[in-house]
Amino acid sequence: MPACSLRLYFVIGPRERPEKMYTKLIALGLQDKPFPLFEGSDKHLRSFTYVGGIVDGIVSVISNEAKVDGEIINLGTEVEHTTKDGIEAVEQVLGKSIALNVIPKRPGDQSRTKANIDKARKLLNYDPKTTLLEAVQKQVDWYKANFTN
């Protein structure tokens, strides 16, 4: 049976689980409550990737089964942002500051995760375009439509 493995990098956007960073940031920001931030994690680098770009990558596998058989393919963006950038994007979209409650660092937390999508570009013509600010705007809009009155 033909198969491939897809590795997804820090997916953000509508329907993100409630305990994940952006949904939690948005919820706490709207409630004027502090966001718990692990000490030093504001400097961590991540490939924050909009869910629509991930879906495009997954769908593109369907017409390329022979090319991707047996492959491990990263889906994400090569654009890196710090966690602080992500917090600032949410603040910008909400139009308000979010208080931070700095808590002790977690052991083993990675300081950087960056997607290398060369293989996805080559095999799937994958090229995510949504910016961090656009992704955050879409997630805030979704959150407000579904969880606020």
Tags for this entry?
149 residues; alpha/beta; Rossmann fold; three-stranded mixed beta sheet; two-stranded parallel sheet; 6 helices; 41% helix; globular
Walk me through this protein's architecture:
The chain has 149 residues and is α/β, with parallel strands linked by helices. The chain has a single domain (5-142), classed as Rossmann fold. The chain contains 6 helices and 9 strands, in the order ββαβββααββαββαα. The protein has helices spanning 21-30, 51-62, 65-68, 83-94, 118-124, 132-147; strands spanning 5-8, 11-12, 35-38, 45-46, 49-50, 72-75, 81-82, 100-103, 112-113. It starts with a strand and ends with a helix.
- Round the Cα radius of gyration to an integer and report it: 17 Å
Number of DSSP strand runs: 9
Number of self-contained structural domains: 1
Q: What is the topology, as strand order, of the major beta sheet?
A: 7-4-9
Uncertain residue ranges:
none
Q: Class by helix and strand content? A: alpha/beta
CATH superfamily membership: NAD(P)-binding Rossmann-like Domain
Shape: globular
What summary fits the major beta sheet?
3 strands, mixed
Regarding quaternary structure, how should these chains be classified? single chain
Percent range for β-strand residues:
15-25%
SSE inventory with pairings:
Layout: E1 5-8, E2 11-12, H1 21-30, E3 35-38, E4 45-46, E5 49-50, H2 51-62, H3 65-68, E6 72-75, E7 81-82, H4 83-94, E8 100-103, E9 112-113, H5 118-124, H6 132-147
Parallel strand pairs: 1-6, 2-5, 3-8, 4-9
Antiparallel strand pairs: 4-7
Helix pairs in contact: 1-4, 1-6, 4-6
